[in-house]
């Protein structure tokens, strides 16, 4: 960390008062950004500068700042969560940028993710997809069978976990040229389809979740694979294929 | 639910794209096999026989209708997808960097597909329509040496034709004068005319005395060797094959993904085969006009 | 204020079963007539909302995030404890109970902790049934790992993302109920006050964070599950939005606040990099299974490392001080968190710290020994009985990668250093708060109808929480305790009928909220909210942090009061009330932290002993270990709110009775 230095950068940030008003890109200059700070700490610094000059700070979503809650978003220089793969914006560090760089910061764009303010978008469409079928219908009594009475092959458990590692950030939608949410939905469908507990409801689950996904106005998947590349958690395209299979099975 | 989902849902659209696309890949392979006969020297007869078979065989007919439907469905579905996908992001990004996460072809399937579609339409106008509907479609001829050592021109008859050959004069044309001459020479016994482009019929008794091949071979050769436009046609064809290649580069393996076939065991093989297919097939297609044009 | 813990009579292992059997029930046809508000959707909140919704109650759930799935439970890495004894290493409900009581330094209620241990197994069953993909062995059975402070393997895990998987499990159950219309979800809503009518909790005032609208919501019972208050330190491993406001509002409305000074400082976090730092990142405790913690034996080596003249890998084995192994041979690197944290602070205070930041605070967590030993094991397992040094290291690194790959990657992203090649730098950071709103055995606060669950209450961890127990408590409260105890309370409410939000109590609470918002927006000060929050954090860290003393605590009480006064005079909050206004949200939260911080210092000052996370320098033995005073301090402190000047708060005591466990000095040697 002794290699940290300070850089000066130019920012081009999407500002939009609220969902109804039109927005636009506004230019900012920010000096003395430590390369050891995270991208969001850089935005904190900008906001401190704006507040000190009595201007309105830039609104952006963030919470855990350790890459797991999925709250942070941002389309940075043309890429969801910025230039580094396998990284959320909160874990992106300024050492990835150079002195004098111009950085575009835009909200995640999708019809199903309307802008709330500045860089904040509404991703509740993901919640509604989950509500349509992303669960196992089991009551929370605790009086289920012993956890070890259903052996699950390690390979299936691992694959299910890797699908379940999705943080629901929406980078897949944001980077898909079609604004498709199939990686998100595919991951959810896969998590359950791979486990014996989830198999019982597999058919209705995939149908309901896909129906809700379509109703939300997401685009159609054309297998460009951009989602897989930009997914901060490395969710595999195999999950979309699995959803396609599950949907076919359910529909026939 | 299930039925309408198979038509309307986003995933169903993927299935249809994939199924029609893969069927069209099969068609491409078959079409290529036929076309490659054009590269074999002195193969006009075989080629024209093949062309006749392809336009008349009932099984082929069914396949060809399937092909037309596939092309239509593939194109309509594609346009629909493109339209809906454009609506899914009403406000675009100011700055994009698409090459960081996806291939050129995967992002441009609609454009590439449109180019291929335009190509298919022109291709059908130039060849398929002429083969099927052109009243002036030339018939296959053959030059032989008569016993006198003189060159003579014959129409080549199909297998079922009463006369295996039909002798022409040195003009090599089935002109009105030619039929007049025959009529005069045979004292009106043979009053011939052409019916259904390929049949020579005696008007007196309605007997088909000869049936020839439509000379698709000549049509093709002439097309690409046309003094004025041959080069342009050739270049156009080659460019279209580039578009097709890029379209297949993404489309082939994408179809398997859409149908749910993606796994560590077979996906690498599918991808490899898809890439090979998307290079080899358009390349071989493109070699044909190049060969024809540059070997005149 | 009378504190009745309502702990049932009878033998310890029968208490909960007997009690549960005699609780009042609400018939299914009456449940839809009863409204319940749940604030917070972490493990405790989501599981409570899902369970109560499933039972048929009319549930409204609130979270400030844009989705219930983002609550900070999601960040828990290591695992969840359960007394399943799948590993056949002698585990039992009693042992989990005993370890938790001992880990909490004998400052938790026996009955609560035993109940927690009893239901721990059900949690795992429930989660597996929900489709939570726990790690498994090749035979398809669930895998376990060990955690600090215990000598059995009882921790269930899903890579380094156990909290995420459990929360998503609870979220899926919650989503199911939302889909069925039994739970109404209010995302991006923040509770800003509790409404009390005739002494009972009857609703909340919440702000819609998007529109700024102040809303009234009524209910027959209110469940607060809003997490801990670690962000009072500004820098902590908590999420940026984590706050104490819901709990604090309840406290202000009359609920006692317990043990605020019990704060867990987690030993393995990434050290501070600079003044712009916004939060600290945890490196899972599970790393202590494989990593060895050390600092140089010689001060000059530590200085050379800080100056960048020496690399850790250049320090010879005999010049390294593996101070945990030296001081605690029995538990070694796996001592409880408070012990490990203090030991790190002790070394750094002595000048052996290795991090080149303002305070030199940092120690090494070194995996090179584990890489070698595991590499050798793997080589042998593959039939190679004569592996070369390079082969061993290569295989060892692969083993480490499989086990901790995501954590190592995260470390490298943040620090730009490769932990496979050079030891990690770590230092303790604020992580969890054992204190919280006082609750009885029913998890009901001193306000009838106001229940508090999860980290927001004080109940189960005493003065220190063991690793992998927070997830256990959150889900136990939400799935297996509240459904019974809330029903018991509501059984008397079936005749109440719908509660009107037109009551004057709602109007009064709403007016208070609006006034405080207006005050901030029209304050026209000169400094940002963060400016004050950072100042508060610094005072808290230096004087109410890992080690406290009377002088420092008295100064802290004074200084926090000053910061609070300045805050109200000089804070600048831009924007308006009728829009998404993150600065306003922060201001409202920091206002509560500025009161709580002072109370924490007061609580630490009155507790003239050292126990668990509370370490008073005056009370330690010759070796620097904590000195508890069971005679005078075996009680739960419960503070009653007496106005914004927290120094006026009144202390009540709930005596802790140990009937089943023999109190002993906590010994990990």
UniProtKB/TrEMBL annotation, chain B:
Classification of source organism: Bacteria, Pseudomonadati, Bacteroidota, Flavobacteriia, Flavobacteriales
Xref: InterPro entries: Cytochrome_b-558 (IPR011138), SQR/QFR_C/D (IPR034804)
Keyword Transmembrane in record: yes
Transmembrane segments: 109-129, 229-252, 272-292
Annotated protein name in UniProt: Succinate dehydrogenase cytochrome b subunit
Keyword set, alphabetical order: Membrane, Transmembrane, Transmembrane helix
Domain of life: Bacteria
Gene3D superfamilies: Fumarate reductase/succinate dehydrogenase, transmembrane subunit (1.20.1300.10)
From TrEMBL, chain C:
InterPro entries cross-referenced by the UniProt entry: FAD-dep_OxRdtase_2_FAD-bd (IPR003953), FAD/NAD-bd_sf (IPR036188), Fum_R/Succ_DH_flav-like_C_sf (IPR037099), Fum_Rdtase/Succ_DH_flav-like_C (IPR015939), SdhA/FrdA/AprA (IPR030664), Succ_DH/Fum_Rdt_flav_su (IPR011280), Succ_DH/fumarate_Rdtase_cat_sf (IPR027477)
Domain Fumarate reductase/succinate dehydrogenase flavoprotein-like C-terminal: 533-668
Protein keywords: Flavoprotein, Oxidoreductase
Residue intervals of the FAD-dependent oxidoreductase 2 FAD-binding domain: 35-471
Record-linked Pfam families: FAD_binding_2, Succ_DH_flav_C
Keyword Oxidoreductase annotated: yes
Domain of life: Bacteria
Names of the cofactor(s): FAD
Coiled-coil residue spans: none
Keyword Oxidoreductase: yes
PANTHER family the UniProt entry points to: SUCCINATE DEHYDROGENASE 2 FLAVOPROTEIN SUBUNIT (PTHR11632), SUCCINATE DEHYDROGENASE FLAVOPROTEIN SUBUNIT (PTHR11632:SF53)
Protein name: Fumarate reductase/succinate dehydrogenase flavoprotein subunit
Organism annotation: Flavobacterium jejuense
